[in-house]
Amino acid sequence: MSRITILIADDDPEIADLIALHLEKEKYHCIKVHNGQDAIQAVHTEPVDLAILDIMMPKFDGYEVTRQIREKYYFPILFLSAKASDLDKIEGLVRGADDYMTKPFNPMELVARVHAHLRRTEQLTRMAASSKPIIEVGGLVIYPEQRSVDLYGKSIELTPKEFDILYLLARHPKKVFSAENIFEQVWGEDYFEGGNTVMVHIRTLRKKLGEDKNKFIKTVWGVGYTLHA
Questions:
Q1: Quick one: average pLDDT of 137-145?
Q2: 127, 144, 170 - which closes a domain
Q3: Is the domain of 69 the same as that of 155?
Q4: What tens digit of pLDDT does each residue of 152-196 get?
Q5: Rounded-to-10 torsion of CA 42, 43, 49, 54
Q6: Are 210 and 151 in contact (CB under 8 A)?
Q7: What is the pLDDT of residue 25?
């Protein structure tokens, strides 16, 4: 079994040590850094399977680290921050993170979320190993193996979770998925206050799909979401 490496980037060494202590008990290999520049360097130096990032770090903040990671890598990113407002959480998810926890935090919950994200990534990797057909919906073309999307012949950039949501809806045209269904299938964990998370991702996905002109994702009020041409 290959080693699973987790990057922990937090400017507080005690917090980084605490996270590493709990994750290393689960046999994960941890890389600890204390600023954004070193976090980016670590990603380019050693294969990383998941990153836990603070937002307020010196040199580069967590948002900038995420932006640079997402230019090339699609592993899960979890923000762990003292910024606790709903707007902060929404901002983190929009910037490309897959999850957001606030400080102070329960280390066991953090470990459980790490397990869930890694499990989901493994499932997606196994799915990608099998041949999957290209999906076309109107002017939208989805390439599952490349995890890429074209809209009327032009490539659009989606975060991993945005792609997963779109692909889920596209594989089941006209089927209505509740926010709970989407959260459990895309995040791979039980639904707990995930409605806002799903709503934010749907909102940003619609914006990237040009929903002012194209109506791909339809809201079925009181039920959920569906994809139609």
A1: 86
A2: 127
A3: no
A4: 888 998 988 999 999 999 988 888 999 888 988 888 776 665 567
A5: 70
A6: yes
A7: 95
Q: Are residues 63 and 147 in the same domain?
A: no
Q: Are 215 and 227 in contact (CB under 8 A)?
A: no
Asked if 116 and 12 sit in the same domain, the reply is yes
Report DSSP letters for 37-65, one per residue. HHHHHHHHHS--SEEEE-SS-SSS-HHHH
Could you tell me which residues are beta bridge partners of residue 79? 53, 100
Joined tokens for residue 171: 């594989």
C-alpha dihedral over 186, 191, 196, 198, to 10 degrees? 20
| Structural domain containing residue 182 | 131-227
Size of the chain, expressed as the number of residues it contains: 229
Asked whether the beta carbons of 143 and 149 are under 8 A apart, the reply is yes
Cα(7)–Cα(169) distance, rounded to whole angstroms? 31
21 and 123 share a domain?
yes
Q: Which two tokens stand for residue 58?
A: 């010196």
Distance CA 69, CA 26 (A): 25
Tell me, rounded to whole angstroms, the distance of Cα 211 from its chain centroid.
22
Whole-number percent of the chain with pLDDT over 70:
91
Q: Are residues 100 and 139 in the same domain?
A: no
User: Within this chain, do residues 95 and 119 fall inside the same structural domain, yes or no?
Assistant: yes
Cα separation of 108 and 18, whole Å?
11
Q: Cα-flanking dihedrals φ and ψ of residue 163, to 5°?
A: -65, -45
CA distances, 45 to each of 38, 39, 42 (Å): 10, 10, 5
Q: How far apart are the first and last CA of the chain?
A: 43
Q: Are residues 119 and 156 in the same domain?
A: no
